[in-house]
Amino acid sequence: MTAKKIKKAVILHSGGLDSTTCLYWALNKGYECICLNVTYGQKHKKETNCCRKICENLKVKLIEINLNLPWLKDVTSLVGGNKTPIPNEPLSKIKSIGRLPSTYVPARNLIFASIAASLADSIGASAIVMGANSVDYSGYPDCRPRFYVPLERAIFEGTRSAVGGARIAVLTPLLKMSKAQITKLGAKLGVPFGLTWSCYRGGKKPCGKCDACRLRKEGFDKAGIKDK
């Protein structure tokens, strides 16, 4: 009898609510998961520490990549060396007037996906799972559905897939979900909400003022679920 081949998936995992829900979603789908955490000089390490703890608890392999992209300090308030404060103004308001918020990291998901594609191609993974969301989000262009169709095609053309290897799917299970729907899915899958971090600031507790905190609170409130 031929043994059933185990599906492998590379999970881009920040330690936040969305990527952790994606990890639990992939495990529930029967994937053998390898988590990939990419840092790029953020002002704090809270999310990365959460990522490590979650992977340790699940006994899921974690690969950490640290990028040095010196130009980021000039363009995004999320990295060290940038003096622009994290905005407290709801980023949905900024989005509505067609301006990118200071928390935007240029081409972040494109960079992350490229690294994940290299890893997936190397280990024979059939999927890359990303926690992108285009409903309750801060207006970043690389969170829109139209980005992911050509992204998957580019990965196909640039890996073994194009010469007869296994195709690598780019899976975005949360892409068209509201934050409340994501929260409900996370609860159903048993996501340990208390181990995740969403706040853009790295204090002892979430600031409750940045857009990430606002979106998270709104999601839990609408879902009727307590944020542990």
CATH class equals: Alpha Beta
The CATH topology label is: Rossmann fold
List the secondary-structure elements in sequence, H or E: EHEHEHHEHEHH
Number of strands: 5
How many DSSP helices? 7
Shape: globular
Which architecture per CATH?
Answer: 3-Layer(aba) Sandwich
The CATH homology group name: HUPs
Low-confidence stretches: none
- Rg value: 17 Å
Terminus-to-terminus distance = 46 Å
Could you give a short account of the major beta sheet?
5 strands, parallel
* Number of separate domains: 1
Average pLDDT across residues? 92
Strand content: 5-15%
Write structural notes for this entry.
Helices cover about 35% and strands about 10% of the residues. With about 230 residues, the protein is an alpha/beta fold. It has a single domain (about 10-225), classed as HUPs (Rossmann fold). It has a five-stranded parallel sheet with strand order 3-2-1-4-5, sandwiched between helices. Helix 1 (about 15-30) packs across helix 6 (about 180-190) and helix 6 crosses helix 7. The longest helix is centred in the middle third of the chain and has 16 residues, at about 110-125. It is globular. The mean pLDDT is about 90.
Short description:
By secondary structure, the chain is of the alpha/beta class.
What's the structural blueprint in terms of helices and strands?
Layout lengths: L7 E5 L4 H12 L3 E8 L6 H13 L2 E6 L24 H6 L11 H16 L3 E3 L15 H13 L11 E3 L7 H11 L21 H13 L5
Parallel strand pairs: 1-2, 1-4, 2-3, 4-5
Helix pairs in contact: 1-6, 6-7
